[in-house]
Amino acid sequence: MKKISGIKLVQGLTVLALATLVISGCKKTPATTDSDTNSSNENAFAQARFNETGNISDQAAANSMTSYRLNPNANNGSLLSHCATVTFDTINHFNSDTIEVNFGPTNCLCADGRNRRGIIYVGYTKPHYWDSLDVITLTFSNYFVDDYGISGTKTMTNEGRINGQQTYNSTVVNGTITKPNNGGSFTWNSNITRKWTAGESTPWWWLDDAYQFTGTSNGVSSTGAGYTATIMTPLTWECSCPLYFVSGVLDFTPTGHATRVIDYGNGACDNICTVTINGTAYTVHMW
User: Fold this and answer.
1) What is each CA distance from 220 to 175, 227, 259, 260, in whole angstroms?
2) Could you tell me if 263 and 250 are in contact, meaning their C-beta atoms sit under 8 angstroms apart?
């Protein structure tokens, strides 16, 4: 038997190693399916919760009593509850007036079926809350919805009537949602236009109210992923279905991932939406 020199042995092992690398490199790595809908769900939750704070503010402003106590069984579409105390400070109409909506320190079941606690502070700059060009600012103190903490600053500017519809420009800055049970938090900022499309002629009856929303939002999910969202078809919210948007489409783009197309449906009052990613549709149950 011939002896193999040390040099040839090293050369042979090198060739074998290179061949192994080449073969390994030619193997295709299975593609990872991009199917995560967590961040889009969080965006929808934030949009709905900050949207409803504007409606709570509107309903509080429409009342003329110092302490507003609503029968929780009354079917008038109000988001307020029997334990929501509404306090007005309108001593000087030449300065900013305020409204305090206090749900108390413990969870209180509201007419829309959600539990709330804490305080929403409302400030407005015109003599009357509904005046054109009024700037309404909402801030929060230990405010929770179903044990989700809500903080940040929401500003609504009354733009008057555009094409016959009362229109507001709404922004949220430093919006933060803190999940219960140490589940982390996510952020949400937005620039949204809200149009009052139905029910304005009946200010004391909320069930016939409807609004449409257009605009953009951005934030960071609870997993640390950034995202942007653009409403492509106006989102519709009806007071008779206070928990969810009933229609509308938005494009949602997490950083480094494909754009998700989120479709809220065609008017049904439910928590179901369709999230389409790379041509594959997923049925998602929203909060």
Assistant:
1) 10, 6, 15, 16
2) no
